[in-house]
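BUG-403 | component: ligand-complex export | severity: low

The export step for cytidine-5'-monophosphate jobs runs without errors, but we want the raw record kept on the ticket for reference. Input record follows.
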Amino acid sequence: MAGRRVLLIVGGGIAAYKALALTRLLRKAGVAVRPILTAAGAQFVTPLSLSALAEDKVYSELFSLTDEAEMGHIELSRSADLVVVAPATADLMAKAAHGLAGDLASTTLLATDKPVLMAPAMNVRMWDHPATQRNLATLKGDGVHVVGPDEGAMACGEFGYGRMAEPEAIFEAIMGLLEGPAAGPLAGRPLSGRHVLVTAGPTAEALDPVRLLTNRSSGRQGYAIAGALAKLGARVTLVSGPVSLPTPAGVDRVDVESARDMLAATQAALPADAAVCVAAVADWRPDEAFGLKLKKGKDGPPTLTLVENPDILATLAASGPARPTLVVGFAAETNDVEAHARAKLARKGCDWIIANDVTEPGVMGGEENAVLLITREGIERWDRAHKDQVAADLAARIAKALT
Ligand code: C5P
């Protein structure tokens, strides 16, 4: 990474202290860091700390005669391979989305011709506000890369999405963005310019406002696959049922609960070059979700009538103009794995099935997986491996199939 340069804009949020750790990680990797500290950012970290860790001068003011004499602000905005905003506050995101240029940070974002990566950090209500979500969509539409935010406890005492991604995750996202162009436009990132849709986790089907039908899927394998695809340069939309996992770096996550919501979210995310359906979708849901909590009574327990859920994999695999080029399904089997998986390939109309025997100890909900890859051409038996390794191997196979 020696010789690579990052322009790091530090906005005003409690997460600004993590920008210091990020600066250290980058410097250790040999990446040059040139910091821009907003006035609000300077309320949280001092220019001196940032400058000492970056081993460079800190830029703060738009109309600084000294700075302009040394390097004009337009030149500054282009003086790096990548512009990183961490923390990207609601204010900085709003300014960038609307093209405002009233200070050095926003002017830099408007003037730069380099890729931009933002690590949002704000209170959960500010993050959830339609204005921020609108700005986020605008920024993504403009090609801005986004890492995080994570879900968790916040400095303000609330809980939810809005915590800035950890420095390691931002570092990884930066490495991903820097690696590609350094070694030629596509080297190491064969899925650049491709969009891959991944479903993961369980679904939760409401019975009444407090009860659910769900399953034990942890979402780990699907999340690992989404992360591995992003590392290869793909734009990844991860449609996720309720799980407690952090969003992998560089992945766009859409949270859903029911199978019907999951189907709608996958269809809204099309077109995609590939779809990987890893979610453990409930086959059935209660035929009606009661608006009020069901009560015990003299009539005894209620009778549940189940109706079938839509099959997301089969729907995506059905031919039509929006069908992804490659549609991959998963099959968790307890017996006759190969025969059942072959039958599933035909029944669902997908291109590949990744089959695993969930009776193997430690596979369901665990760290490891032992899989078979079944294509129309044949079968491959993969060695038992960590789910991250299975994910990396599968992402590499997908890249090969698409290029
Ligand atoms: O039919 P079965 O549930 O065994 O198929 C598993 C595969 O189908 C997985 O890839 C899963 O994500 C997908 N699936 C789906 N929608 C359903 C049921 C399964 O996408 N309703």
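Assignee comment: Attached the raw record above. Residues 199, 259, 277-279, 281, 283, 309, 311-313, 329-331, 344 surround cytidine-5'-monophosphate (CB under 6 Å).
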